Description:
- By secondary structure, this protein is mainly α.
- The termini are far apart.
Amino acid sequence: MSEPNRAALISKLYKVLKAHYKPVAQNGDRPLLQHMLYACCLENSHYDKAEKVYQHVSTSFFDWNEVRVSTVKELAEAMRELPDPPSAAANLKSILQNVFEATYSFDLEAVKKQNIGVGIKRLAKFEGASAFVVAYATQHALGGHSIPLDRGALDILYIVGIASESERKSGAVGGLERAIPKNKGWEFASLLHQFAADYIANPFSPSVKSMLLEINSHCKERLPKRGQKKIEIQESPAAKDDGKAAAGKHAAKPGIDKHHKHPERSSPIKDGKDAHKKASPAKSAASESAHKKQAMKHPAPAKASSHAHKAATASRTSSSRKSETKRLAKRKPR
Length: 334
């Protein structure tokens, strides 16, 4: 049996969503900018958590300008209950910064008076305004027909066969707004978002898997599998190149590895000491022999001088005694 076409799958998706979830009423009382800031909290998150975080940010800071000048780390700490606090905080801060630089205020109500196409293009130019944020603001503040799709919703549409791989990456699914009428757009979007939030929270949940198969029984091969991301990371070309470079570096310097010892290799310092110890007895014996030979050829000058002096002194003494005896013998007696 072939897979059903896109229109039939969208109709089946809508039917299954209504059987498992209840629609969330839209809040049209917020200004346009606050709809965008709320959408930053809502992306990939449940409605109750998003509302709680949005209220906490809007009340714990003095005003939106203080939020604008705060660091992403500080905002992420205040938004820590969301699935991805750093990303949500960065988008919220960027939108406030761009709006302030463009209007020197925190008011975008003038955009509502423009043509809806011009208004959407203007919102899309703001840094931090993701496709989900722009679509949510278009649906809830500008009165347009646009279904917000975050990462979880795009994954679901891809798994059940409604979106292609390229549409999943681009974030735009063709034919979705045509298949869902405008008066049902907010209801369908709220149901799909609740399912997407559950998918983001636990994509391997049995209930999530059961709903996906209920929408399209031919999607088993596209269901998320445990360890799939880990395998992709291990087999990526960049990881392989890094591994080869690390292996080459390790092979070039074997002595760096402290945990791998080579018994046949010894330390050059230790070998030097042992060689010095082995060579020292022979070296000292040869040195002593050469010293004795040198001493025999050239006697010490100090000792030779001492013997000559004693011999000269004894010779002079004997000579003077003989002279005195001869002198006395030649004297005539009185």
